[in-house]
Specification:
Length: 193
């Protein structure tokens, strides 16, 4: 059985792929090591094997782990072959509190040039490039943040739920800077959506 699993790993390895990191127990050895080392797993693997990039076979999937910062930009340019966009959608949905409706808008055509995610990046690229536009947005963001802190101070002793306050503040800071006086996210109903 052991030799069969080793053979499967070797057969699944294609020449252009990064080298495979061997596990004592094929396919599940990495899972056991992740459980043992927790957040230090990847640092342990990096220090043990010293590969700038490697392939990790885990039962049911293949992971490519990048240890060299110099390779990150090269990988990010291959967005059609290696896509991080599903993680963007998951992050917006879970962390930023996006609704199902927002998730459905963002999900189709993740790598298409006219898809929401790719189109959004193209739309804001010039605005966020160093220069007068970014400076103006930063000033507006600081004004919004200051107003939020002033309102909190004016309320006196009050109880706030930190995560909700920070999330709302971050949303208003960024959308005020982008939308100006007519920011639709100032409406609490739209913010909740």
């Amino acid at each position: 059985m052991y030799l069969s699993l080793r053979a499967v790993i070797r057969q699944r390895q294609h020449p252009p792929e990064p080298p495979v990191v061997e596990n004592t127990i094929p396919f599940i050895g990495a899972i056991l090591a992740m459980i043992k080392h927790k957040t230090k797993f990847h640092a342990t693997m990096r220090d043990k094997y010293r590969h700038p990039i490697y392939t990790l076979r885990v039962f049911g999937s293949t992971m490519y782990v990048i240890n060299a910062a110099s390779l990150i930009a090269a990988v990010q340019k291959q967005y059609r072959a290696i896509s991080f966009l599903p993680f963007v959608v998951i992050t917006v949905y879970r962390v930023a509190g996006g609704s199902k409706a927002i998730n459905e808008i963002m999900t189709p055509d993740l790598t298409a040039n006219d898809g929401f995610i790719a189109g959004f990046g193209k739309a804001i690229y010039h605005t966020l490039a160093p220069g007068i536009d970014l400076y103006a947005m930063s000033i507006e963001a600081m004004r919004t943040f200051r107003a939020s802190l002033d309102a909190l101070e004016a309320a006196g002793s009050t109880r706030v739920f930190l995560f909700a306050w920070v999330r709302s503040g971050a949303l208003l800071v960024t959308t005020d800077a982008a939308c100006g006086l007519h920011n639709p996210f100032r409406d609490p109903a739209i913010e909740k959506a």
